[in-house]
From TrEMBL:
Residues 156-251 form the CAAX prenyl protease 2/Lysostaphin resistance protein A-like domain. It comes from Nocardiopsis exhalans. The keyword Nucleotide-binding does not apply. GO terms for molecular function: metallopeptidase activity. It comes from the Bacteria. Keywords: Hydrolase, Membrane, Metalloprotease, Protease, Transmembrane, Transmembrane helix. This is CPBP family intramembrane metalloprotease.
């Protein structure tokens, strides 16, 4: 009796057969609770970013007291690291919000297997990285941007920070947007397809909004990126491939900037006319190509898209057939 009571009081497991985006769905839509979850998610993320940037700026002032501000990069290694860590903290924050507001285990945000599937992550990394490397190389070659003078120390530490922390930042956004927000918005729909449209639509719109671009083409770029990552999250039952797409794109972008001594302030320009057409084309090809590969690999047999009952095992792998096949 004691064991049963403890199980009832703990976080709820996800029943077998429930798709990733339907985990938070129930008899009631709980729209108000969902809006609260989204507000807390975004507020917590930007609050952490501001706090870490203030601390980073204060430390920068101590370490570089004699260097005028206009002789340093707009994005110093410390400021860069602070922002990345702040967004990376969205991972535990999303898990906490899901458990607190919905009573569902935070680990289920990773996948329907209630854990991060490293095998799927590794295979996706080997496939996505070459495609995005070529796409970004073509863009940088065809549309060379403005350059700036980088301090030798900034180059070294920006490389370290980028390689170590950009993947963490990318994972944070995916757990928050393609994880929690996707599920919260999907829970507002009654049917499977209505839920899917709501989940991808709301998470994609919010992703564009938080990147504060006034250029409509940048917003289109963010929307396309969100649609692809939302699609692969649903199609594979977890955020692993979405994390790979985001992390590889962001990490390679920063590495190109560092290698080319790019003017960071110009590269971060999201005002009207800020997006280069070449990047839109090459990026679109890479994103759509990734989605096509995921569809092709999962059209018959692929990663589990719903939790598996403990007594089912792997069996004849029928549990790995997506319902859309």
């Amino acid at each position: 009796m004691t064991v049963k009571t403890q199980e009832l009081r703990g976080p709820k497991p996800v029943p077998p057969g429930v798709e990733y985006h339907r985990v938070l769905a129930g008899e009631e839509r709980r729209v108000g609770r969902g809006i609260l979850a989204i507000l807390l998610l975004v507020g917590g993320m930007f609050g952490a970013i501001i706090a870490f940037q203030l601390v980073g700026g204060w430390i920068d002032g101590i370490l570089w007291p004699g260097v005028p501000g206009d002789e340093r990069l707009v994005l110093t290694p410390l400021a860069h690291a602070g922002s990345l860590i702040a967004v990376g903290l969205v991972i535990p924050w999303s898990m906490f919000l899901q458990r607190w507001l919905y009573g569902v285990r935070g680990a289920t945000l990773s996948s329907v297997a209630s854990g991060f599937r490293l095998d799927l992550f590794g295979r996706a990394l080997l496939t996505v990285t070459p495609a995005f490397l070529i796409a970004l190389a073509v863009f940088e070659f065809m549309s060379p941007g403005e350059t700036a003078v980088w301090l030798y120390s900034d180059v070294i530490w920006m490389l370290v920070v980028t390689i170590l922390l950009v993947p963490l930042q990318s994972a944070g956004e995916e757990y928050g947007l393609r994880g929690l927000v996707f599920r919260v918005a999907a829970s507002w729909g009654r049917g499977r397809w209505t839920s899917l449209i709501l989940g991808i639509g709301v998470s994609s719109a919010l992703f564009s909004v938080i990147h504060t671009a006034s250029d409509p083409w940048w917003n289109l770029f963010y929307l396309l990126f969100s649609l692809v990552t939302g699609y692969v999250t649903w199609r594979t039952g977890g955020v692993e491939i979405a994390v790979v797409i985001h992390a590889v794109f962001n990490t390679l972008t920063f590495l190109f900037w560092i290698a080319l001594n790019a003017d960071v302030s110009a590269r971060f320009d999201r005002s009207a006319g800020g997006l280069d057409t070449v990047l839109l084309i090459t990026g679109t090809m890479a994103f759509i190509g990734t989605a096509a590969v995921v569809w092709f690999r999962t059209r018959k047999v692929g990663p589990a898209t719903t939790p598996i009952a403990p007594d089912e095992g792997r069996g004849d792998r029928t549990d790995l057939v997506p319902e859309t096949a």
